[in-house]
Design goal:
Blueprint (H helix, E strand, L loop, with lengths): L1 H5 L12 E6 L2 E6 H12 L4 H15 L6 E2 L1 H10 L5 H12 L14 H9 L3 H13 L4 H11 L7
Parallel strand pairs: 2-3
Antiparallel strand pairs: 1-2
């Protein structure tokens, strides 16, 4: 039995991450791509961006020590947490975007649920979407054909 177990080789999964060089408050950092995306999205919604950039740069500089040259995603999350910036709003938004799919909504349909599905996907009023399709139909903008093709292509919502 020992011989059999020793012949099994465990493969270690190697994960490579893209590293980006960024300037934050006039300081240069090597940062993982996912950490950069996260930090950039958090900073884009902040009111006093320059002041915050300086604080973040100082905290990130503290994370770099002998042997560590790259800022990682956990580093960014920890620094933002220390500064009192909520990560939950950004995480909720990205999870919603990842889960967002286009479906025909059969519980709010007039013909095939295409307009209500598009309205839900683009987060606009269903009536507005229907009016746009009716206008495109009467103006000869291929509204009928577009609706028909979308009716065929877009799947039904799974909860219907």
């Amino acid at each position: 039995m020992h011989r059999h177990l020793s012949s099994i080789k465990l493969k270690k999964r190697i994960v490579m991450k893209k590293i980006i060089t960024v300037h934050l408050a006039e300081k240069m950092f090597q940062i993982e791509e996912d950490a950069f995306t996260y930090l950039n999205n958090v900073l884009s919604g902040q009111w006093k961006k320059q002041e915050l950039e300086g604080q973040i740069a100082e905290k990130l500089q503290e994370k770099l020590h002998a042997g560590k040259n790259v800022i990682t995603f956990p580093d960014v999350v920890e620094v933002l947490y220390q500064l009192g910036i909520s990560a939950s709003e950004y995480q909720a938004a990205t999870e919603t975007l990842k889960e967002k799919k286009l479906y025909r909504q059969l519980n709010d349909k007039v013909i095939g649920g295409v307009c209500s599905g598009l309205a839900e996907y683009f987060e606009i009023d269903t009536v507005l979407m229907r009016v746009l399709f009716v206008i495109s139909f009467f103006l000869g903008l291929m509204g009928f054909w577009v609706y028909l093709i979308l009716w065929i292509i877009i799947p039904k919502a799974p909860h219907n």
